Amino acid sequence: MSDTPTLAVFVIGDLQGCRGELELLLDRIEAEAPDARLVFVGDLVNRGPDSLGCLRRIRAMDDRAQIVLGNHDLHLLAVANGIRPRGRSDTLETLLAAPDLHDLLQWLRQQPLALMAEGHLIVHAGVLPQWTTEQTLALASEVSAVLRGSDWLEFLSQMYGNEPERWRDDLQGSDRLRCIVNALTRLRFCTAQGEMEFATKEGPDTPPRGYMPWFEAPDRQTQDTPIVFGHWSTLGLILRPNIIGLDTGCVWGGKLSALRLSDRQLVQVNCPQYLP
Questions:
Q1: pLDDT tens digits, residue range 140-151?
Q2: b or e along 144-157 (b: 16 or more beta carbons within 10 Å of the residue's beta carbon)?
Q3: pLDDT in tens, 175-189
Q4: Phi, psi of 215, rounded to the nearest 5 degrees
């Protein structure tokens, strides 16, 4: 048996380009657990002031850091390749003009949409109620294989849209990939049968009629696996035995949060409001 101590693993919530707050949080983590491994729940970029700095910083960490892709990260890939127009709230100009943009994008598209860390399933947004943990990882890998392959730009051009609203095992082609991406990077509310709804961005107390937060769906197949996610700033911090929500609204003037998985120790820094 090795005497080498196991390194702590901290999962960090949505950054959205808040590089300064990331540095403050990393200093706090370093003080608690030097050389800790870091896992980011996605949305590294956009809306905040320094998306370029966030990508460069995390990429430079090499094997110390892992990420899952969020909807804003996929949006960056699409915008940078002329597939989608910039949004009104985008703050990607400096990043898009960077001399190392190509290298950063190539690194970004190699990243997964789901991963396991210390027995926890890490995704950006959510998991459909009929998916098991193993199925979630397998479906995420299907998307990753395409995103890393030679047809990745064609995939991005077909990625957008809200259909199909519900998963079926016999889905194929772009419909299949789009449904997987929407669940893992955009999901907030769904029905008990897994029909997704994307218009509502408010908190969990005002769901659309017939819908519920995805993690409250009855008979959810991942109930025995603790899941860590971000994406839902109006949800705020959620710390339940099997559900951890870490989007605490950094870019909205909230906090940037990190959680040590082994003992649920929370580390947070306050953030200025970058969005009105």
A1: 999 999 999 999
A2: bebbeeeeeeebbe
A3: 999 999 999 999 999
A4: -80, -5
